[in-house]
Specification:
Layout lengths: L1 E2 L1 E4 L4 H11 L14 H9 L4 H4 L5 E5 L5 E6 L5 E2 L19 H21 L2 E6 L9 H11 L5 E6 L11 E3 L13 H11 L2 E2 L3
Parallel strand pairs: 1-9, 2-6, 6-7, 7-8
Antiparallel strand pairs: 3-4, 4-5
Helix pairs in contact: 1-6, 2-5
Length: about 210
């Protein structure tokens, strides 16, 4: 199938990285660099991708290592790890004073959420969701329903990566990536490219 946009839905950075490598998707979308469970993704979509709710300071908590260095910012309500939404430094994944940058994060998310709505309305869109350890595959149908509400007249296809194939509900395509070790956060590009290529999906030429 041919799509106008390929939009990552998490659950981790390597999903987006490899989708861009394979499809050449140039767009930036809300969940590109979030580490997030399926339940949090669905809630975010059902709430209309409300940037103020995603970055509500009441639910953002720093995660510290044993030396007191901030490793990431965790959204305690949605389960999101905001690894790339706040300034970092050498040896410091998240710099102190990150709270001052919440308004900027809200603005950026609002912009890419609007871009996703426009892409969804224009269609067709390929949404790609990779399994997070706590995901319940049966809720993928709820994810489909939430995506339908993003643009009721838009057309899309949902691809689920590394969910047990026999647990994925009808109407959702499933693929499994057999990765080798030693590729770091980027994942096994060859294995991922092979699995994505086997679907026959491609990005439309502008």
């Amino acid at each position: 199938m041919e799509f106008r946009h390929v939009i990552p839905l998490g659950s981790r950075c390597r999903t987006t990285h490899n989708l861009r490598l394979h499809f050449g998707e140039p767009g930036k979308f809300p969940f590109d660099w979030f580490i997030l469970p399926l339940a949090g993704l669905i809630t975010c979509l059902e709430e209309g991708m409300d940037a103020a709710k995603v970055f509500d300071p009441a639910h953002l908590k720093p995660v510290l290592d044993e030396k007191g260095v901030i490793q990431t910012i965790r959204n305690t309500r949605l389960g999101i790890l905001h690894q790339h939404d706040f300034p970092s430094g050498v040896g410091q994944p998240i710099l102190p004073g990150w709270e001052e940058h919440i308004p900027g994060a809200i603005g950026r998310f609002a912009n890419v959420a609007a871009r996703m709505r426009a892409a969804a309305a224009a269609g067709p869109v390929l949404y790609v969701r990779e399994r997070y350890k706590s995901d319940d595959p049966t809720t993928l149908l709820r994810l489909r329903t939430a995506l339908e509400a993003v643009a009721p007249r838009g057309t899309f296809h949902l691809l689920a990566v590394n969910y047990p194939p026999d647990s994925v509900p009808q109407g959702v395509e499933a693929i499994t990536v057999e990765e080798t070790e030693g590729h770091g956060w980027r994942g096994d590009a060859a294995a991922r490219g092979s699995a994505l290529g086997a679907t026959g999906h491609r990005l439309a030429v502008p």
